[in-house]
Design brief:
This protein has helices at residues 4-17, 138-141, 152-160, 166-171, 181-191, 204-225, 233-239, 272-275; strands at 22-28, 49-55, 58-63, 69-74, 79-84, 99-106, 114-119, 127-131, 259-262, 267-270. By secondary structure, it is of the alpha+beta class. It has a four-stranded antiparallel sheet, with no helix packed on it. The chain is elongated.
Length: 291
C-alpha cells in the first residue's frame, strides 16, 4: 500500500506534470471506484488542474480555481497512479483489466496525456471522491496530525493517552496520518521497539527516539522517492526496507533472522535481537503476545 513517502512523491509528480493541464474526457471503467455522485464526475471536464496535495495517505488533485473541485483518491493496497503519454482514445470496457478511472488531459505543450488510476487483484478497494473541499472525504476528515509535522511534545501527548500497542498507534490514521504497515515496521526496527510495546508505557527517552527515527525514516524515504517516475516508486520503496517484507533474511544491523507475525489479511516483520530482547513473538492472532 502506498504510504506517506510514495503519496507525497505522486503529489509532486502531478505538480510537475499535470498542473496547468485541462481535463478532457473522464473514463470510468469501474463504477465501484466512485464514492460520491454530487457533483457528478463529468463536472471535471473543462477544468484546469491547479494543484496536487497529500492528506495522510490520500492523494488530491485540485481542479479549477478557489471555488473549484477536489478529486481525492485512496489507492488502498493494490491501487496505483500511472501517467500515460499516449493513452488510447477508445473508451475502456467496464470491468476489463486493472483500469478503474482515466483522466484525459490537454497539456500546455500541446500533448494529450492521461492519468490512470488502476487496481490489481480481485479485492477492489481503490476509492475516488469528487468533492468541493477535502474535508468532505470521511477518511480525510478524521486524520490525526501528519507524521512528518507532529512535534516531539505532541507525539508524547498522543502516546500518553493510548494503551494500545505501538504498532497499532503508528498505523491508526485518526491518531497519526501517513504511516502504514511497511514504514511502521521500519520505524520500530530503527527505534529498537517491540511492535507490541504499550504506547503509554514508553519512557520519555524512547518517545524522543521514536520521534527522531520517525522523521528520519519518512524524510529519507521522501527524499528517495520525490523525483522518481511514478512507475518506479514501488521498487524504490522496497529497496529501502530493512525488515519489512524480509522474513527469513538476516537483519542488516545484527544478523539475526527477521521474523514475521501473520494475521488473517496482513503481516508484519521485526528483528528479535534489535527489538524484543531476543524473544520471538507468537505468530497467531489469539496468542498472549509480548508486551
Amino acid at each position: 500500500m502506498p504510504e506517506l513517502p510514495e503519496v507525497e512523491a505522486l503529489a509532486q509528480f502531478l505538480r510537475d506534470h499535470a498542473v496547468g493541464a485541462v481535463i478532457g474526457r473522464v473514463d470510468v471503467a469501474a463504477l465501484s471506484v466512485l464514492k460520491t455522485f454530487d457533483p457528478p464526475i463529468g463536472d471535471l471536464q473543462g477544468r484546469d488542474i491547479s494543484g496536487a496535495a497529500r492528506f495522510g495517505k490520500h492523494l488530491g488533485l485540485r481542479c479549477g480555481a478557489e471555488d473549484g473541485l477536489w478529486l481525492i483518491t485512496h489507492l488502498s493496497r493494490a491501487g496505483w497512479l500511472r501517467w500515460q503519454d499516449n493513452p488510447g482514445q477508445t473508451p475502456p470496457k467496464p470491468g476489463k483489466g486493472p483500469l478503474a478511472l482515466r483522466l484525459h488531459l490537454f497539456a500546455p505543450d500541446g500533448t494529450t496525456p492521461a492519468i490512470d488510476l488502476t487496481e490489481a487483484g480481485t479485492q477492489k478497494r481503490l476509492a475516488v471522491w469528487l468533492v468541493r473541499t477535502p474535508a468532505e472525504v470521511p477518511g480525510v476528515a478524521r486524520l490525526g496530525p501528519d507524521a512528518l509535522d507532529v512535534t516531539d511534545t505532541a507525539l508524547a501527548n498522543l502516546l500518553s493517552r493510548s494503551a494500545a500497542r505501538i504498532k497499532n498507534v503508528l498505523t491508526d490514521q485518526s491518531l497519526l496520518a501517513g504511516i502504514g504497515n511497511a514504514y511502521s515496521d521500519e520505524i520500530l526496527h530503527e527505534a529498537r521497539l517491540s511492535p507490541f510495546a504499550t504506547a503509554n508505557k514508553l519512557s520519555p527517552e524512547q518517545v524522543s527516539m521514536l520521534h527522531a527515527v520517525m522523521r528520519s525514516v519518512l524524510g529519507d524515504a521522501v527524499t528517495r522517492s520525490v523525483g522518481q517516475d511514478a512507475a518506479r516508486l514501488k521498487g524504490e520503496k522496497r529497496s529501502g526496507m530493512r525488515v519489512h517484507a524480509r522474513t527469513g533474511l538476516p537483519c542488516p544491523v545484527c544478523g539475526d533472522t527477521v521474523r514475521e507475525v501473520s494475521f488473517a489479511d496482513r503481516s508484519f516483520q521485526y528483528c528479535p535481537t534489535c527489538q524484543t530482547g531476543g524473544k520471538v513473538l507468537a505468530d497467531r492472532r489469539m496468542s498472549k503476545l509480548l508486551k
